[in-house]
Amino acid sequence: DAPTVTDVSASDPSLEEITCLVATELTQGTTATTYSPNASITRRQMALFIKRTADLADELEVTALAALPAYDGIPDFVDVVGESTEAQEAIGQLSQADIVEGTTAATYGPGQDVTRRQMAAFINRLQDFLTGDPFTTTGDYFDDDAGDPGEDNLNALASVGIFQGDGAGNVTPGGLLTRRQMANILLRDAQV
Q1: Phi and psi, residue 11, nearest 5°
Q2: Dist CA 6 CA 29 (whole Å)
Q3: Which of 51, 19, 59 is nearest to 184 (CA)?
Q4: What are phi and psi of 19, to 5 degrees?
Q5: Which of 161, 141, 162 lies closest to 152, judged by CA?
Q6: Residue 190: which of 53, 90, 50 has the closest Cα?
Q7: How far apart are CA 57 and CA 100, in angstroms?
Q8: What phi and psi values does residue 59 have, to the nearest 5 degrees?
Q9: DSSP string for 23-64
Q10: In this predicted structure, what is the pLDDT of residue 2?
Q11: Interatomic CA distance for residues 21 and 23, integer angstroms
Q12: How many angstroms separate the CA atoms of 69 and 66, rounded?
């Protein structure tokens, strides 16, 4: 199939994943015709991706999954008030479900880029919320996350094939996540 966005070539290794995200409307792209696969993901965008993933999982569930709570209309963080209604609702629902946390007690940091450790936490908390059972492992899959606050989530997601390192034993926990990487992670999570 030809890509539905103009900036993802037919030879792109993540073409199928990105096309799937666009087709299922888990993403709307960065414009009507672009996906920006190498751009980093903001916490605002990640909240939208995670909320849409949770809603789709609930809609297509084979086994009973928890549905996100309805948004109570009260922003949990002072810095989301100026966000779009869709972003406010996604952040609010995910905060109410304990899937996302703020960067401080009062702020969410919607424009900040998502790190790989944050993405692992979002995905594992989503798993816990939906099924009541987060991914866990005693295995150590990466060399560069020892003592990192994201180590447990990164290893847990690696144990089921959702998170993958660079092939040389590194996961770069504080590194930024690209939109291409996010597409792969979300689809691996859906497959698990």
Answers
A1: -95, 0
A2: 11
A3: 19
A4: -60, -40
A5: 141
A6: 53
A7: 18
A8: -65, -40
A9: HTTS---SSSS---TTSBPBHHHHHHHHHHHHHHHHHT-SS-
A10: 46
A11: 6
A12: 9
Residues 183 and 171: their CA atoms lie apart, in Å, by: 17
Structure token digits, residue 73: 């209309």
What does each C-alpha distance from 100 to 45, 114, 176 come to in angstroms? 12, 12, 17
- The label of the residue with tokens 């979300």 reads 186
Distance of CA 116 to the CA centre of its chain: 10
Rounded Cα distance between 181 and 31, Å, is 19
> Do 35 and 179 meet the contact criterion of CB atoms below 8 Å apart?
yes
Helices then strands, each counted (H, E), the chain: 6, 0
What pLDDT was estimated at residue 59?
A: 84
**pLDDT of the chain, 192 residues: tens digit per residue:** 444 688 988 888 888 888 888 888 888 788 888 889 999 999 999 999 999 989 988 888 777 788 999 999 999 999 999 999 999 999 999 999 999 999 999 999 999 999 999 999 999 999 999 999 999 999 999 999 999 999 999 999 999 999 998 889 999 999 999 998 988 898 888 887
Residue 96: which H helix or E strand, with range? helix 85-96
Report which DSSP code applies to 73.
Answer: S
Q: What is the distance between the alpha carbons of residues 45 and 51, in angstroms, rounded to a whole number? A: 10
